[in-house]
Amino acid sequence: xASLGTLVNRFVGVRDLAEAPSAIxxxxxxxxxxxxxxxxxxxxVKAIDNGSVVRVVDPEARRARNNTMATGFxxxxxxxxxxxxxxxxxxxxxxxxxxxxxxxKLEKQRAQxxxxxxxxLNPNRMRALAKSxxxxxxxxxxxxxxxxxxxxxxxxxxxNALPLSASGAAVR
Length: 172
Prior knowledge:
Blueprint: H1 4-12, H2 22-27, H3 59-120, H4 123-132
C-alpha cells in the first residue's frame, strides 16, 4: 500500500536524490537530528559551606513580621466573631425544629395513651372483666364511707410534713 508521501511524490514529480546532481544533494537536509535547546550549556554544581556565615538580625523585618501575624490573628478573630452568632442561630434552629417534632410525636403518643386508658377504664369493660373473673358487687354492709376533712379545706399545695402518727403528733 502506498503512503501519502509516495502519492505526493508521484504527482509533484520529485526526482530521486541519487539521480540528482551533487549540488542539489549537498543542499538537502541531513538525516541527523536537530540540536537540542541549550545543549551546549554545562552546569557545574559546587558544594558551598555556609557554616561561617552569620545572619544579620533585622529588627524592622522582625517588627513587620510580628505586625503581620498580629493583624492576621485579629482579622481571623473578627471573622470568627462574625460567624459564631450565625452558627449559633443555625444550631438553635435545628434544636427548635427537633423539639417541635418531638413535641408532636409526644402529643400523638399521649392521645393514644389517653384513648387506651379510656378503653381500659370503661365501666362496661370493667363489668365484663369482673364477670369473667367471677367477681360480684359488694353488699351494702361491706361498704365503708370514710369521713375526712371537707374538700374545701384542702388546697392543691404540696405538703412536706410527715403523716400524723397514732398520737396525733408528726414523727420527726
